[in-house]
Structures are given as C-alpha cells and as structure tokens.
Design brief:
Helices cover about 40% and strands about 15% of the residues. It is of the alpha+beta class and about 300 residues long.
C-alpha cells in the first residue's frame, strides 16, 4: 500500500515537472469567426464559450459550462449537456440512428454482425466512450467522454480532471456509472481506450467494470469500408461518410501539450477545443453506426 502510494506520487511529480517545460501550442487561425465548428443543420460548439482575445487568460468555468462534482474524497469537473444543446443537427443524427437500428438486419452482410446487439438493446443501455490522455502507456488520462440516451434524449457526459490528482476521482466515478450499461461502443477501444483505462484503474486500485458487450468500430470499418478510403482513421471516415471536414479542430497530437499547459497556468483557452474534439469523436461514432446499418458505406 505504501509502495503504491509512493509510486503514484513520484509519477505525478514527474508529470508536473514535464508540464513545466511544455510550451503553449499556437492558436489556430482557421477557426470560424465565432470560434466554433459548424455542422450540417446549424451552428455547433461549446455553449457558453467564446473565442478569447489573444493573451487573455480564461477560467475553466468561462471556457466550458460544467459543474464541480464532489465524489468520494475528491472532485472533478463534469460537462453534462444534451446533444441538441451542442449541435442544432444532433436531433436529426439521433433520429436517423434510431431508424437505422429499427430497420431489418442484413444477415448476408457478415461484416455487420458485430452491430447486431445494438438492434435489440434498449438505447439507454448503450454507452459510447472516447478518452483523451496526456500521452501513451503509463500516462494519466484527463478526460472521459461518454454519450448515451436518457429519457429519450441523447446526452454528452464528459468527466474532466482539472489536474493530474483528479484522475483517480474521474476513474472512480466512471467505475460507478459504467455497470448501468450493457453495451460499450468505441473506436479502437479494444486496442487503446479500454486497455488504457484498465491500466490507469489498476494504478488507482480499481477494477474496470466492463459492460457485457464491447463493439469496436475500427475493425468493423476495416471490414465494411475496405479500400474505399485512404485509411480508416475516424476523421477520414467522418469526412467520407458524414460529409464533414473539421475546421479549427485541435489535432490529437496537440492535446497532451495543451492539457499540460492548462495544468501549469490554469488558462483554459484550449480546453474548450479539447472538449469539442472529444464530442465530435463521440457523435461521429454514432453517425458511422447509422451509415454502416444503412449500408451506405458498401
């Protein structure tokens, strides 16, 4: 127990030292005038956030609308919102998704077999998950993005660690709520997201409560899409099948540095972009399920 506590403290100290040497990523000039990405059907973005003037520090509460959630002996920042409050077109996305789930299954399309559980499950029992981390293996995660149905509405539920010490609280909260779901949907989750979470939970003396069924859309996309796209990255599939090209989205490679900078300075200018990136990944996964079940990718 003492050894584990010392190892975790040493790891956090090393990360804080690393953060001291991380420089702020350059602000992107390709954002729309309001600093948000526009999807078909209307403007989209982070409610309550604005593009700050260069050099102005931004508090987290001003960058992203959320609430501090005390949990156990710690706390974290939770950003919970209905998808329709984030994107005008979210209601249409969700309606098309439910219609695709209700359509007859194509037994001859063996590549789609992995999606069969979605067609019989209650929408409220399905959870889409995507994480953001400070690096690769043995680095803390700082954001767990969840998307699920609640009372007929599609909800975005993002668990954000405001510094490295809040990772454990985020993971404990995740371990508390995951058992309510029967199906977990990810993109490359079998290889990355779930093993990463399991590793981090082990460090915090937790056990990952895996839902009974895990649907990873990446291997499914490889089977269904084949060589119709240059690669099978999520944003490539998004561009080809969702007809959406991200404008001003923070690159995945810049996210760890942007988070380290936030921890060091508490300037949340880039946090809204990270939250938006995570939301786009989640909604793109849902739309890809619609595309696959409608056989629009064949």
């Amino acid at each position: 127990m003492v050894r584990h506590h010392i190892d975790l403290k040493r790891e956090l100290d090393e990360l804080k030292k690393k953060a001291e040497g991380v420089f702020r990523p350059e602000r992107r000039t390709s954002l729309d005038p309001d600093g948000r990405l526009h999807l078909p059907g209307g403007s989209t973005g982070i409610p309550g956030s604005e593009t700050p003037a260069p050099g102005d520090a931004v508090r987290l509460v001003d960058a992203v609308c959320g609430d501090e959630v005390p949990f156990g002996e710690g706390a974290f920042y939770r950003i919970l919102s209905e998808a329709g409050a984030v994107w005008v077109g979210a209601g249409t996305f969700y309606r098309e998704y439910l219609e695709a789930l209700g359509n007859p299954f194509f037994p001859e399309a063996k590549a789609l077999e992995a999606l069969r559980p979605l067609k019989t499950a209650r929408p409220e029992s399905v959870c889409y998950l995507d994480i953001e981390t400070t690096g690769l293996s043995m680095s803390p995660l700082f954001l767990v993005g969840l998307m699920y149905a609640s009372e007929g509405r599609l909800m975005m539920d993002q668990l954000f660690a405001r510094d490295y010490s809040e990772e454990g609280t985020v993971l404990r909260y995740l371990a508390e709520i995951l058992p309510r779901f029967e199906i977990l949907v990810t993109f490359n989750g079998i290889t990355f997201d779930v093993p990463f979470i399991e590793e981090r939970m082990t460090i915090h003396r937790l056990t990952f409560p895996a839902p009974p069924t895990h649907i990873d859309l990446l291997p499914l996309a490889r089977l269904v899409v084949g060589d119709k796209t240059p690669n099978h990255r999520l944003q490539t599939l998004e561009m080809h099948f969702c007809k959406r090209r991200r404008v001003g989205d923070i690159a995945g490679a810049q996210i760890p540095g942007a988070y380290h900078e936030f921890v060091r300075t508490q300037d949340a200018k880039d946090v809204a972009n990270i939250i938006h990136h995570n939301r786009l990944d989640l909604v793109t996964m849902l739309q890809l399920v619609t595309v696959f079940l409608s056989r629009e990718a064949e």
